[in-house]
Design a protein that fits this description.
Structural class: alpha+beta
Order of helices and strands: EEHHEEHEHEHHEE
CATH class: Alpha Beta
Radius of gyration: 17 Å
Shape: globular
Bound molecules: coenzyme A
CATH architecture: 3-Layer(aba) Sandwich
Largest sheet: 8 strands, mixed
Strand content: 15-25%
CATH topology: Aminopeptidase
Helix content: 25-40%
Distance between the termini: 48 Å
Strand order of the largest sheet: 1-2-3-4-5-6-8-7
Length: about 220
């Protein structure tokens, strides 16, 4: 059914990361809806958004095919956006052109992670790690400085009345607490650079985004 070049695959070859294609639009919307049950409706990416992503920046759109079931089971969406470490406060949806990626800047030095989702029954099998590998591979291929995102600390909403976000992050960084999103990103080489209040509207992360950055080691940072 899907006959697309493989970018990265699992060790046994069952899961293959490919560039998303128009035939996957309803699958991508479904993955999004299931992955972000508490995100406000106005910030969900739907089929028309994914179609625009594929048109504007096809190389930045990744999907995972389960070759056994011939099914799309995970996806991630990226655009190129500049990163200013002195002024990183921003809101998710306007930053990504209200979901359509019209803010994509082909001259930017950074790749911005707009979205990643794995179907629940496929989680904890290393699929997000395959997507992070594909995204980091793209950064290296394009000679970019790195990959960054406003990560959603999805375990924070449940404890927001017990501690400030900074204390929560310290516990996650010290591995004293597992956050279902941030802990995985830290394992994959991302580092926390800042806190973005009112990044989006989602109770699970108390509307916070956490600026996370993965730097391309081929770039001379001195
Ligand atoms: C976040 C998400 C993409 C992760 O996808 P995934 O495919 O399950 O992630 P992986 O399997 O690659 O990695 C999971 C890691 O967490 C670890 N892990 C899972 N539960 C854990 C727990 N309770 N304690 C400690 N580690 C745990 C796993 O062992 C694995 O690490 P390892 O590979 O080093 O062993 C997925 O949960 C998802 O789609 N969530 C909903 C959408 C979302 O929140 N996206 C992020 C928006 S910023």
């Amino acid at each position: 059914m899907f006959n697309l070049p493989t970018i990265v695959s699992s060790a046994d070859g069952r899961y293959q990361v490919v560039n998303s294609s128009l035939e996957m639009l309803s699958d991508l919307e479904q993955i999004q809806r299931i992955s972000f049950p508490e995100l406000s409706d106005g910030e969900l990416m739907l089929s028309e958004h994914f179609a625009s992503h594929i048109k504007i920046f096809p190389a930045g759109q990744h999907a995972i095919i389960d070759t056994l079931e011939q099914k799309v089971v995970a996806s991630s969406s990226d655009i190129m956006l500049e990163l200013d470490f002195g002024h990183y406060q921003h809101k998710f949806f306007p930053a990504v052109g209200d979901g359509f990626f019209t803010t994509h800047n082909p001259n930017a030095r950074w790749l911005y992670g707009a979205d990643i989702g794995v179907l629940p029954e496929y989680r904890s099998q290393g699929l997000s790690s395959l997507l992070y590998q594909a995204r980091q591979k793209l950064v290296v291929q394009l000679g970019l400085h790195g990959h960054y995102a406003g990560a959603m600390p999805k375990g924070y909403g449940a404890v927001r009345d017990e501690m400030p976000i900074e204390a929560y992050l310290h516990e996650v960084i010290r591995n004293e607490r597992f956050d279902p999103v941030l802990s995985i990103q830290l394992k994959r080489g991302y580092r926390i650079y800042g806190v973005i209040p009112e990044y989006l509207e989602d109770a699970s992360c108390a509307n916070y985004g956490i600026l996370i950055v993965w730097r391309n080691s081929a770039v001379n940072w001195s």
